[in-house]
Each structure stands twice: as C-alpha cells, then as structure tokens.
Amino acid sequence: MKILIIEDEKELRNVMRDSLEKEHYLIESASDFHSALDKIISYEYDCILLDIMLPGGSGLEILSELKKHKKDEAVIIISAKDSIDDKVLGLEMGADDYLAKPFHLAELNARVKSAIRRKNQNGNHFISWKNINLSPENRTVKVNDNELILNRKEFDLLYYFITNPERLITKTSIAEYVWGDHAEQSDSLDFVYSQIKNLRKKLNEVQAEADIQAVYGVGYKLI
Amino acid sequence: MLKKSLKYYTLRYFAIAILGIIAVWAASFYWLIIDEVYDNIDDGLKDSKVRIQKEIDKNPEILLTSEYDLAQFKITALPPGNYNFATHIYNSEMYMPYEDDDEPVRILQNIFQYEGKPYQLEIYTSTVEEDELIENLLTSLVILYFALVVSLILINHFILKKAWRPFYGILNNLKNYKIGGKFQFEKSKTNIQEFDELEDELSAMIARNERIYGQQNQFIANASHELQTPLAIAGNKLELLLEDKEINESKAHKILEINQMLNRLKRLNKSLLTISKIENEQFKLVEKVNFNSLIKNALQDFESLIDFRKIEIELNENGNFEFEMNVDLAIILINNLLKNAIVHNSENGFLKIMISSDKISIQNPGEKPLNPQLIFERFYKNEQNENSTGLGLAIVKSIVKIYPKLAIDYRFDNGHIFELKA
Questions:
Q1: Choosing among B233, B271, B286, B396, which should be mutated to test the A contact, i.e. which has the most A CBs within 10 A?
Q2: Nearest C-alpha neighbor of A208 from the set A137, A126, A142, A112
Q3: ipTM of the predicted structure?
Q4: B chain contacts of residue A81, beta-carbon cutoff 8 Å
Q5: What are the chain A neighbours of B235 within 8 Å (beta carbons)?
Q6: pTM exceeds 0.80, yes or no
Q7: What's the CATH code of the domain at A102?
Q8: pLDDT < 50: residue spans in chain A
Q9: Which domains does chain B possess?
Q10: Is B240 on the interface with A (CB under 8 A)?
C-alpha cells in the first residue's frame, strides 16, 4: 500500500510518515505544488493525503488534475481551515474525506484505512482483527459468526480500535473521537473508562480473542 | 439625577428667563408711566396757578376762597414773616364724597404776596390711584406671562418637535445598532445642516468601527489558523513518543499531561476559530430549520453521556419551533446550549426542554443565579473548571447576534433557564 503525503510543513510530514509507517504503508511525500503534481502524474498510490494550502498552488488544483488524469486514488484533504465551504468544495471535487488540523494520529489511521477500504471494494466488506469482523457499512460486528450487539458509541469505539490495532490510543483521542466537540467535559475521561469497560465486557461475553488493554493509564491498546 | 427631555429642558429656562425679563420690564414701564402722568398733572396745576394769580389781579375776592369748595383751590392768609416763595407739588390724600373714601390727590402749594401780605395758595387735582394702576399692570402682566409660556409650550411642541424629528430618528437608529451585526445606518435626508452632519459623522464612525472590528476578527481567525499546524505537530509527536518502547509509566504520565494541555489549547483555538467564522459571516446559506428534530438529534448524540451522568430528560413539545437560518449554525447553537445544560448538571440531575412555536427553554439544576450580563461573555467562567473553554455560551451569543429576530435570555427559576426566542 502506497501513500503520498502532500504537506509543506516538514515536521508534520515527518510525524505523519512515522505514524503511517508503523501501519506498514509505503510513504512518499511532496512538499510543494509542483513536486506533488509530478508525483501524482508519474506514480500510482492507494491514498493521497492532501494539504490545501501549498507553496506554488492550491491542493484543490491537484484534485482537479487527478480527475483530469482519470486517477482514482483515495484522497483525504488535510486542512488547517476546517471551513464547511472548503470541505463541501473538496468533497464535490472528488476528495474522499476531509480531516481538519489538528488531528490525532489514531484518527488519521482510521480515516486512511477506511478511505482505502472504500476504494478497494474487492469483495471484502469487513475490517477484521483476530476473530472480530466489523462491517462499517452495515454497522454490524460479528465474532465467530455470532452477532455482537453494540450501541452507537460502542460501535464507534470498536471501529476506532480496530483501525488502530496494537497502537496506543490516548484517552483524550478516544474522548474526542466518540464525543466529538463535546470532549471538553471534566469527567469525559471517566466516561471513556466506563464505555471501554462495557465494550470489553461485551467482547468477553462473545469470546472475542481480542482485548482492549489499558496502557499506563494514559490510553488503551487493542491486542 | 432626574433626566428631562430636551423640550422641557429648554422650556424651563425660557420660563425663568421670561419671568425675569417681564419683571424688569414691568418696573421700568410702571416708572415711566407714573413719571409721565405726574408730569401732565403738574403742568395742569402750574397752569391753574398762573390763571388763579391773574384772576386775583382782576378780582381780589378770590383771596377769600379759604376752603376747597366748588373751586379746586383754597387761599389762606398767612401772618407776616419770611417765607419761601418756591412752588411745591406733593402727593396727599383727601376725602372724596363720590368715593366715600380718602383718595390720592396731587397738591400744588405756593406762597405769594398780594399787596404786601403773604398768602398760601393750594391747588389740588385728583390723581391716579397708584395701587390700582399697579394691580392692573400686574394682572395684565401675569396674563401676558402665561400667554407667553403657553405659546412657548406650543412652539416647543410643534416647531421644535418637527425640527428635532431627525434627531430622534438618529437616536432610534443607534438604539438598534450592534457592532458586527447587519446594521445599515439609514440617513433621514434632513434639511437641517447640523443633523445632516451628525448623520454623516455617525455613519463614518460606524463604518470605521466595523472595519476595525472586522480586522480584529480577521486577526483572531488568522492567528488561530496559524496555530493549527504547530498544535497538530506537537500533539502528534507526543502521541508517537507515547508509543516509544523506551518510555516507562511515569514518563508516559508526564507526556500525557503535556498532551492534555495541548488538547486544551486545541479546543480553545477551535472555539475561537468558530467564533471568528460566525462573526465573519462564513455561514451564509439560509434555510428553514426545524429545531424540534434538531434537538432530538442532539439528544441522541448526547445519549450515552446523559446515561452516564444519570440525567433525567424531560422533553415537552407544545409546537414546532422553525426558523430561517444556517443549519450548521443552528446545530452549533443547540449543541452548545444542550452541552452547557448537561455539563453544568449534577449526577441524577435533570434537563427540561420545552419547545413551543416561538420559544425553546432549556432548564438545568442550579443553586444560585448566574450573572446574566457576564455568562455570554468570552472566557467567563462561573466556577473554576479547567476543562471548560469558557467560550460555549459566547458562541451561542455570536450566532444569535447574526439573526436580529432571534434572542437568547437567561433567568433563574428553580434552576438555570436559557430561553431561545424567535
């Protein structure tokens, strides 16, 4: 799996690369409009992470170039702007997803994984980890062919873990993922704890081979 | 201090000034009239004196007129001696049978010699009754004074009111002015130069303020934007660091603490960006929004949080609250209000939502009233809560400010009640 990161900030490029390499992707990067254009024309990628504001041009122009060359890479726009107009425009121009800076690395992983999965709909509609099979489209989970009934938040939580297997996900990142903008609450971390406790209990009940492990009390890891 | 309207303010000074002017004028008028009257009388008396003396030469019997009788004079023979022969005229009183009373008279007294003997001649003439003159003068002046004041009130009422109409127009215009709102200063096309200038200056001032306000908003937006990337890098680096195998538990906790501070910064920055986006009117698309379904959706979003905190929800729908606005802003508005009510709640607390066609009220438990002037201000926190940005209700206020027909109120009645009115 090859991913192209188009981002002018060197440090952000590096940190994204480091994180995605842990997921065993092949990473290439471009730091400005023209080198990005060269790369998308010359090579094939599975996913492109695209910054909108680039030296030398706009990321949206790269989107239309991709269309012009009939490329169908999964494109995730990564923008500091987080404006609804930009988001709508980007998605209309053929981007698959829109991620606003600043983001959590686990969130980036989840987005990349689902974008690639949607592009390669080759019969496999499930994301799997050990004996857990999760279908994002139907929002269902099966463990050994037994259906696992989860509520909305629990499903989101499991989806977040299963797209970041064996990676440490911080409590704040989880709170923001399942809670969105409402994570600022003082007891949000207690809330995360109770949600994970419930999820673990449910996984345990259906004899899932996977477990969610607390790491130093700073976060959790799906193993 | 008791405030008076401009009309009564000017009227009061006019009334006092006219009172003074009339008093001074009355005194001088009275003095002039009396002087003129005495002058006339005295001329008549002197004339009589000359006639009588001439008559004495022809007819000395006149010297025997020793009492005021038919004639208005008397002549008294004086013993020989040295007399002052000058003419005196003075005021006195004399019994008048006609009036059956003593009446003021003016008397000319003169000592003269006839054939070497001194005689005193006294001529009287009835004179004006001064007190009656003063009385009449006073009455007419009081009438004049009130007539003037009444005319002034009328002039004030009709002419000044007409002249000041543009001013009250400007005043009303300014009452509706909110900075950053969609305000147009309507010029009244007055033909009064001062008001025209005032309107020009005011609209220039408003334009200046709006420009500065816009620049300030733009600055906040730009600053927040520029912060996003460094915040992302720092946070992501810490997340990678946490995954490092060489990190032990105590180090992990320290890194997490830094990460949590960064998250606070991110939230703060995000809220500031939201406010500046709202105030820079980046949410333009307007459609009819049904708040009933919006609230139900939001409650679903908050469901697990509400369950977790064991908050009892009471939703009463007495009507459909619909409003023409940007749907994203409506969602932010409702989410912030509900979040505020859920966050500032107690375990086993309650959240009451009442929806009618023109009002949504959201009630949560509370001990004592909050300051309604401050709760919608940016960064106002009632209690020290380090996880709160203090911007949630400020965002609510900036959204409401965009739509002149929308209002948000706070009151305290068995809990905190926020009311959204259309």
A1: B233
A2: A142
A3: 0.87
A4: 225
A5: 102, 104
A6: no
A7: 3.40.50.2300
A8: none
A9: 30-150 (3.30.450), 193-279 (1.10.287), 287-421 (3.30.565.10)
A10: yes
